[in-house]
Design brief:
The protein has 5 helices and 6 strands. By secondary structure, the chain is α+β, with helices and mostly antiparallel strands. A hairpin with a 5-residue loop joins strand 5 and strand 6. This is SWIM-type domain-containing protein.
Amino acid sequence: MPAPLRRKPSSLRDRDPSDPLRRVVELAQRARMILDVSTADLEAAEVTLGPFHPTSWHFRNALHEARRSWDRLRAEFGKATLEEALNQAPLTVLTLGAEGHDTPLAILIPIAGQTYRVQQVGGTELAPVQWRITRLTPPLDDGPYYACRLQDGSTQCDCAEWTYRIADVDNTPATCKHLAALTALGWI
């Protein structure tokens, strides 16, 4: 009797939204992005308006609520589970924009536990699909990064992880965390 065929496990993105693992990953990623956005909002308000301005107080309270929500998730699911969920491919995207505008002001995605702003930039003949990737908080000194799909179908990123991995002598296709996230979303 032939052995039963084993199905390849479906990616989290393809699973039913009620799947417990997908739910945990989505909640963790969304909560992390909200926490990072709240931190960035407070920092911007304090720099622009000062720490005692009513707007700064509003953002300080929003950050406090985001931290409380994160602590509730950590209590419910555990620190290890949340860390593992944050290292999964992005399941959620946060689009920020003004109502009535066709183009969003910012698209945020989680990559390896950090929130990144992604922005599609005009392609070229050599690289028709290009993305600018900037970490939201804390901002990187050497960013932003640019990830692209070349005309021949290969992908490239200018981050250190991709640059050093591509220099390997075994010629294995290199994928950094930025390219992996954009690939999981189907954007590159």
